[in-house]
């Protein structure tokens, strides 16, 4: 198994991949696709004006929705093109270029969210460190919410073991962002984690 960051590998293979991704979500939005399911899920966990870290924020669709709902949002992603898109379309949040394996921001957050298969793109050797660093950014009572699909090189059991190694424990496991229960045969995992 390669230990390269999967997103950077895609960019090495196709320097236009970031633009393709940006265009894909623009097209989906224009077609009326519901792109805010993850954000609604996270918003339901929070009181107004909460601090949210969007870890692997991409174009800012999740964090931008939460900022528009009145939360203080910081988004971080390693792809400058995606951060530029987030800054252009969602000025109500703070968008930063950075590597989650080196995450070290001031302050603490009520929720750290990593949606959109982010954890399946990171280099496998950095997974536990990323989970550990996300956990360190949680305030008292804070939660880390991670969602990703199966068949992407990161088994759900391995993720849960990595989370435990990072000092996190599960509060809730779901199979979708719309609250369907998780089962071993599920093809998606939404994990709500807290400091153990």
From TrEMBL:
The keyword tRNA processing does not apply. It holds the Pfam family Methyltransf_25. Keywords: Methyltransferase, S-adenosyl-L-methionine, Transferase. GO terms for molecular function: methyltransferase activity. The keyword Transferase applies. Residues 52-142 form the Methyltransferase domain. GO terms for biological process: methylation. CDD domains: AdoMet_MTases. It comes from the Bacteria. SUPFAM superfamilies: S-adenosyl-L-methionine-dependent methyltransferases. This is Class I SAM-dependent methyltransferase. It comes from Paractinoplanes aksuensis.
